Amino acid sequence: MPDFEKTKRTTLKRLHDRGRFDRETVYAILDEALICHVGIVVDGAPVVIPTAFWRDADTLYLHGSSASRLIRALEAGAEACVTVSLLDGLVMARSAFHHSFNYRSVVIFGRTEAVEDAAEKRRALRLFMERLAPGRWEELRPATDQEIKGTGVVRLGLAEASAKIRTGPPIDDEEDYEDPVWAGVVPVSLACGAAQPDPRLTPGITEPANIPGPGPFKAGA
């Protein structure tokens, strides 16, 4: 896969060594994350909204109520900035100045377009459901035409994007390494707890194998 082309908006202004433009890295981060933040301009003012997303090949999908401000703006082809972040660790240094985070992030720029075709919209929503629990779409009551109509789905081509990553131990000033202060990294990860059944669950229904279990969560697993 060819790398993303560097643009004025995606080129890092500092800490250039943390930048990544290869699609494998960018797509891996997108496929692991569950929430993104979408930045648009509405009535001359910036708005940033957190929402769920998913990827299919070179396309990013977003969805929401057809009546929502975000979806209406995106369906109209708003210029958007989408950001995704994964926190991997707390970097505890020997000085407050050098404390940091280990993280992986992606920034995407582009114009969105509405998914109008009902069949394509159903296919896109099925991909989203399969990302959370493979096989669950087939277990559920089929989505009604009214539900599909009331759900806005937009797509964003992945053409202008970059990743930024920090890994490793703290980077202290050389003279601080002899200080008697603990330093290191505290790992952080997204994990699931034990599933909590709905109090109104029909008696006799057991938890299916595709529901994420306790431990690290991996989308699509």
Describe the secondary structure blueprint for this structure.
Blueprint: E1 19-20, H1 23-32, E2 35-42, E3 45-56, E4 59-65, H2 69-75, E5 79-92, E6 100-111, E7 113-114, H3 118-132, H4 136-139, H5 145-150, E8 151-157, E9 160-166, E10 184-187, E11 191-192, E12 215-216
Antiparallel strand pairs: 1-9, 2-3, 2-5, 3-4, 4-8, 5-6, 5-10, 6-9, 7-8, 11-12
Global structural class:
alpha+beta
In this structure, how is the largest beta sheet organized?
10 strands, antiparallel
CATH architecture, by name, is: Roll
How far apart lie the N and C ends? Answer: 24 Å
Summed over residues and divided by their number, the pLDDT gives a mean of: 94
Beta strand count? 12
DSSP strand content: 35-45%
Please state the overall shape, judged from the principal axes of the Cα atoms. globular
Taken together, the total number of domains comes to 1
